[in-house]
Amino acid sequence: MTRLLRSSLLVIALFLAVGIASAQVTDSIRGLHKVKKKETIFGISRMYDITIDELIEANPDMKAPGYELKKGVVLRIPYAAGQAKPARPIAEVKASADDVRNRAIRLGVMLPLHDINGDGKRMIEYYRGVLMACDSVKKLGISVDVHAWNTPEDWDIRQTLLDEAAAKCDLIIGPLYSKQMDALSAFVAKHDIKLVIPFSINAPQLNDNRHIFQIYQTQAEINEASVNLFVDQFKGFHTVIIDCNDSTSKKGPFTAGVRRQLEQRGLEYSVTSLKSGEDDFSKAFSRKKSNVVILNTARSQELGVAFSKIDGLKVVSPELNITMFGYTEWLMYNRSYLENFYKYNTYIPSTFNYNPLTPSTQRIEQNYRKNFHSDMQNRLPRLGITGFDQAYFFLRGLHKYGKTFNGAAGMLGYEPVQTPLKFERYGNGGLRNRSIVLVHYAPSHKIETIKF
Fold first, then answer.
1. What is the rounded CA–CA span in Å between residue 126 and residue 385?
2. For the stretch 270-309, what's the b/e string if a residue is b when 16 or more beta carbons lie within 10 angstroms of its beta carbon?
3. Tell me, what DSSP letter sits at residue 321?
4. Those residues with Cβ within 8 angstroms of residue 389's Cβ, 6 or more apart along the chain or in another chain
């Protein structure tokens, strides 16, 4: 039996969508932006991943004394320094009648959509986020024809692929299970369909199938990126590594990588322990430089002890400047340690940033509750927002670039609610997400996301 769920798009009120006027792309300008009420120069530059100076340089009128940004003004949006530019303007490519840019985008979702177990319930929440994205892009004039198939773990996905609607898709999101990849990979290659793998599965097909986008990053990849970020961002600091005596910790590769890089660059660091006495603990911290602290575990209990020891140290030596550098798991400890995060200027590397305090997060959660009469599951990242961010990203990309869309940095001016995406080609195969951010808890009690 073909397990097909046809969904009609819900009329879902959603948060502000980025408005971009259509424009021919040039060598230096990638598009136009029509200013909305309450938008600022700073906000617009952040929206497109460019600096304020780059925005002003592309819009010389801004250099006039007393210039004020007003609603309705159309700004030229330049490429950021070092940002890849299209080989030729997309607008110059003549679109055929069946080009995806001239019609409704045909989206297929092949995931376990059921309420039998945790997999199904989680994927239903993710799928609801996808539907919310479809409704949001509708406000931008983008039509989407959605087909959803229930593909549980014991299902032979080849039966789903017999449905004639599957072969007509422009984009398929799925699967959740590795054993369904062989058939689906061959199918999208045959029918020239883009395939987005949204979660962690083993997908060796990425090596040679250029139609595949893999969003998940392995822990080894995240560790490597985090080490590079740490050393680059804090090379002028004195690093303090605290041994937390956690035999279950999996953070050894990170701290070992940090030590190796620091030694290669001739940068000093010190090692101390949560069990060290006050004098020995204090000696690990520099009085001449700012200190950045990393632990060799992500567990909450040890983090609490570390904060207590650092608090005690600051009582004796208030002149010490101390910053914390943590792990993605720390994002789950906001309720317990938020004030400490702010106090110690904390940076957390992650592939996402769920911030319940931002207006965009609050709006999407309110609308999810309104339309589906339930809250998103209390887990990180929020799967409903994950579904929204991913679908919105690819639908807008397909609408703007058609089949040439490859998800590279700078192709879209989309500010994600939770999950940034930036894809790079994996050899001669598919594309892998390489986006990583630093979530910064500033002493001013602001949370910012620094993208790389």
1. 7
2. eebbbebeeeebbebbbeeeebbbbbbbbbeebbebbbeb
3. -
4. 129, 133, 416, 417, 418, 419, 421
Per-residue pLDDT tens over the stretch 129-155: 999 999 999 999 999 999 999 999 999
The token pair that represents 147 in the structure block: 């087909």
Q: How far apart are CA 406 and CA 263, in angstroms?
A: 38
> Which H or E run contains 135?
helix 118-138
Q: In what order do the strands lie in the sheet with 171-173?
A: 4-6, 144-150, 105-111, 171-173, 194-197, 212-214, 431-433, 423-425
Residue 318 has what DSSP assignment? T
State pTM to two decimals. Answer: 0.76
- What is the per-residue pLDDT across 262-300, written as a single tens digit (0 to 9) for each? 999 999 999 999 999 999 999 999 999 999 999 999 999
Give the tens place of pLDDT for each residue, 337-372: 999 999 999 999 999 999 888 899 999 999 999 999
Contacts of 257 (CB under 8 A, 6+ apart): 223, 224, 227
Cβ pair 137, 396 in contact under 8 A: yes
CA–CA separation, 268 and 3 (whole Å)? 60
Q: Where are the domains of the chain?
A: 4-14+99-217+358-438, 29-85, 220-350
Q: What count of other Cβ atoms lies within 10 Å of the Cβ of residue 88?
A: 10
Greatest CA span in the chain, whole angstroms? 75
Residue 23 is given by DSSP the state -
Among the four given CATH numbers 3.30.365.10, 3.40.1000.10, 3.10.350.10, 1.10.287.1770, the one describing domain 29-85: 3.10.350.10
Q: So what's the pLDDT on residue 450?
A: 87
Q: Closest Cα to residue 105, out of 69, 67, 138? A: 138
SS3 of 79-113: CCCCCCCCCCCHHHCCCCCCCHHHCCEEEEEEECC
Q: Which fold has domain 4-14+99-217+358-438?
A: Rossmann fold (3.40.50)
Alpha helices in 156-299 (DSSP H): 157-160, 164-167, 181-191, 219-233, 252-264, 278-283
One DSSP character per residue, 184-220 reads HHHHHHHHT-EEEE-S----GGGGT-TTEEE----HH
What backbone torsions phi and psi does residue 78 show, to the nearest 5 degrees? Answer: -85, 170
CA distances in angstroms from 204 to 12, 181, 187, 207, 430, listed in the order given:
37, 9, 15, 6, 10
Instruction: In whole angstroms, give the CA distance from residue 158 to residue 383.
Output: 27
> Considering the domain 220-350 in this protein, what is its CATH number?
3.40.50.2060
Report the C-alpha gap between 316 and 277 in whole angstroms.
14
What are phi and psi for residue 308, nearest 5 degrees? -65, -45
d(CA 244, CA 273): 6
